[in-house]
Structure formats: C-alpha cells, structure tokens
Amino acid sequence: MSAEDSDVIKSVSAISTENSTGESWAKIATISARAPWVLHGSRLSSTQITEVESQKKVYTAASSSSEELGSLAFLDANTSVLCCTAGQLCVADIRQHSPLQALPIPSAQGGQCWCMALGCSELSSQPIACLSSAGQLILMDVRKTSQCLASVKCRVPSCSSSAEFLSVTWAPALDGCLAVSETTALSKPGS
To answer: Which pTM was predicted?
Structure first.
C-alpha cells in the first residue's frame, strides 16, 4: 500500500518471481517481524523470501524438488511451513542452509491436491489444517507433523485435479473453527 494516508491501494513495486510460462501462480505469505518480508514461490525449489522495500533476497530454498506448492505460511521470523500439492509438508528455517525435506502428510491419500492453513495459538504449538481436493481434512501439531491429531471427510463443491482454488482457513474470531472452500475456474464460452 502507498505510504500516503489514503484509502486507495496503489501499486508501488513488484517482486519478480522465477516463474516460467505455463507455471501456476506463485503463492505468497507476509511477515513484518523485522522488516516487511514476502515468502513466495510456485514450486518447492523456487521458494524464497524477499525483503519488500529493498527487493533483496533474504532466503532461497535449498531443494532439488520441483513439487508444486499448494500453500505456504510463516511460523515466525525464522521458520515457515510449505505444503506441496502432492501431499507433503516441509518446515524451512532461514538459519539453516541444509536441503529442505518434504515429508508426507500423515494419513494422506494419493492422487489428490493439498493445501494447508496455519492456526494462531497462544499455546506453545500452532495447529496445521491440511485439506485435499477430495475433502480429506487432517489436523496436526507443527511440532509433530508426522502425527495426525484428527481427520475428517468434508464436503467440497467438486473434485478438482488442481489446488489452484482450494482453500482452508482458520476463523479468526471463532476459536478452533475452520472455513473450507473450493472454487472452480470459469471458462469463457468457446474455450
């Protein structure tokens, strides 16, 4: 947003992505713990953190995996969680330069697209909700992503082969409640 006191949102800069033609849109997450940062990428191997004002790359993921990202989020100023559409989670720490290892979401069924949402908690843990395109919802503790805390089958509008419009979010005013949605892309007549 522009620095002026205004209710108008103006474009002041753009952060370039390493997105080639035909790639899915980059996913983004923000944090302002230090300076404003943007975590962004469309694939695990292209994930990076960019400082908004200077456009300096703060972190680039060390991964040879080209798995597509379903969603990503900051845990804190040093760590983030990445969810691959194939059903893997990865915790990235900018203080470590070791290659990222994506681990399967527990109880995840194959052949589905996945996304996740990170919950806010005043407890020592943060809950993670992972949602598949077939409506499988899995809850985990960020400290033990190899264990499923709860699992349920949700009704989603339609089964899709893409996670582009799949979404799960924690309700900010309703403790412990989730919102689930899947929107299908509309095509123009004749296309």
So the answer is: 0.80
